[in-house]
Amino acid sequence: MSLIRAVIRRAYLDKLYPIGALSKRQINGIKKLTGNIREYLAKHQIFAWLLRMLLTIAVAAIVWALIHWYNDYARVLTRAEAYFAQVGVELKRRNNLIPNLVVTARKYAFHEEEIFKHVSDAREMFIQAKGVEEKMEAAAKLDAALSRLLAVVEQYPDLKATQSIQDLIKELSNTENRIAEQKEKYNEVARMYNQLLTTFPTNILGRIYGFGQRMQYIGAENDLLKTPAVEFEWKEDCVDE
Question: Do 119 and 102 touch, CB atoms closer than 8 A?
Answer without folding.
Answer: yes
